[in-house]
Protein 1
Amino acid sequence: MSDKERLTVGALVTLLLFLAPGYLLHVSPRFAGSIGGGMLGIAGAILLVLLLVYPLVKHVNWLNVRVTRRLPLRSLLAFHVYAGVVGPVLGILHSGHNYQSPLGIALVLAMLIVVLSGFVGRYYLAYVAIGLRQQEGTLATLREAYNRIADTLAGREAIPSDLAGKVAGARGSIPILPLVDTIAELEYAIGAREKVRQVLGRWMVVHVTASIVMYFLLALHIWSGLYYGLRWLP
Ligand code: HEM
Ligand code: HEM
């Protein structure tokens, strides 16, 4: 995953989150059914269908063998991610912020859940994992320092030269209590972050379940759009 992808997709997700509740500022009741609005909706829906190429190629063996010779899964996933944010942006623009029907609202909500869970899986979990590794590294260093001080105080070990100055003459004043405090705080922070990681680790279940719901609602939405008539069709 490139930095460029992370930054671009992050910016697009932010745009989406600002656009989605735009009905607070602006509503265009007739836009979704107009030519321009309709085209945006159709373009968005096409992207949402095309991004399924990634899971299809990933799971369907004979497709996988044929396609990945020319297009690695990595590229298909990059396309999945870009189409997965651009499609929803087009869909929201198409809506003209005119959230009228329960169906339209549910469709938009399901779509946002899919995008956010995808974002968590693709970028945020890695970010949490890096932070966790750093904290665990610090904790290991602190524990080692603690053990050395404890051993020294117990007289089991010769006083190391870097501690000698501090220990000299005043064993009780070694900063062991602040050290114990810091270790306890760090252990607590790591535990909390580990919990976050476990919860977010279930992103895939949310991502896939919300997608199934979203495609179902999208199909209904398109059907009702066609059924009640596209206003710009003769
Ligand atoms: C990216 C996917 C799409 C999303 C998220 C989306 C969302 C919406 C929303 C929120 C509305 C506002 C009205 C409501 O609340 O029901 C709307 C209206 C509408 N959509 Fe979509 N839409 C999408 C794709 C499509 C497609 C592909 C079509 C083509 C058939 C379509 C046809 C319509 C029509 C005709 C209206 C106007 C209904 C009216 O004004 O009475 N939409 N859409
Ligand atoms: C509305 C748009 C989207 C839909 C419908 C969708 C749907 C799916 C589906 C069905 C899978 C297959 C899960 C499997 O392998 O069984 C998947 C995987 C995945 N999606 Fe999405 N997705 C969307 C947008 C996104 C976005 C915006 C991102 C990232 C920002 C993303 C990131 C991922 C990742 C990382 C995987 C799993 C990759 C792997 O480990 O194989 N998706 N998505």
Note: The radius of gyration is 27 Å.
Protein 2
Amino acid sequence: MRNSILMFVILLGFSISIMGWTWYPQDKPDQPETLPLVPMMQQLLDDIQQVDRGIYTENFAMIEEGAGNISHHPTMTVEDKKLVKKTLGEEMKQFVKFDKVVHHHADSMRMAAVEENMQKVLKHYRITQQGCVDCHSNYRDPISTARIKDN
Ligand code: HEC
């Protein structure tokens, strides 16, 4: 009898702690701070697709979240930074400029979504998209090739 009461108390304590653990999400950041370039890019694709979905369904909260994730995207890992620097040399400046365009206009897009101003969202969407594509047309191939050689 004593044993079963003890067992009950232990189980109760255990379930309560499990419940607390699942009910209260830990304070973990939404995104990691650094990521290798390719998974980071795949995440940017998910984010911009979320923005797209928000635009066509007029869901401003969705746009706000996707754009916010783009503007706060993780930075490259140290190894990838080295690879990019080695591959691009002086061109690194231009690479950084394209990245800044994306950060800046994704953030303006997020703010336009907060204001629920679709015209403004689109204006900054186009500039963001141009930033993604400009960087790709100039640097995607060389960096991708350097990565393959590096491995
Ligand atoms: C400053 C440069 C730069 C910007 C800005 C940039 N990218 Fe990229 N992206 C790259 C490079 C470099 C690669 C190739 C990486 C490799 O293969 O090593 C790449 C590759 C990709 C890929 C292919 C990943 C794969 O599976 O091989 C996707 C998708 C992508 N980018 C999406 C985006 C989106 C969406 C944006 C804008 C929101 C964006 N990128 C902005 C540099 C950039």
Note: The chain has a mean pLDDT of 90.
